[in-house]
Amino acid sequence: MRIGELARITGASPRALRHYEREGLIACERAANGYRVYDARTAVRVRNIRHLLTAGLTLADVRCFLACLDGDMTTAPPSAEGLRIARERLAALDERIAAQTEARDRLARALDGVVPAGERATAPPGRRQASGVRRQSRVNWVGSAAVSAARPAAGPGSAGCGGPRPAGSARCRTPWRVRGPGG
Questions:
Q1: By C-alpha distance, which of 96, 176, 84, 95 is closest to 139?
Q2: pLDDT at 142 over 60
Q3: C or N terminus of the chain, fewer CB within 10 Å?
């Protein structure tokens, strides 16, 4: 069968099939015109590859299952090696999730107290803001920590990010204002 037919019956794209071939997971013959011709058993192998990828394994992990890819992997009991590989992948995913959760929590802490641009920040109870003066903080990113530095809000003719803007330059479009110590 040709690549388009294999793609249709397995649900894999022709590009994915060529990638599996480059990775050594499937093989094909070449017709006289140069077209790829696949054996009918390749469909089972591709379905098994897709099953393992959908389960969360990588192509490098799938390569360890080469001897098993031609059978019915969905109903066969897993081997000890297969379980070891799956557990290692699960541990790697757990590590990535923990790292992403930490990054998300750092960003959430940095955004705590953020006021969207255009909304007026209010002074904390017991403090008054001077008439006509708004204070704005900006978040300075130092490594992975966010440090707030209070400064007066940008006035006419300023860049909106601290200081005068050069002639002909566009105004800075900061998406939020962070409440500083003064309000």
A1: 176
A2: no
A3: N
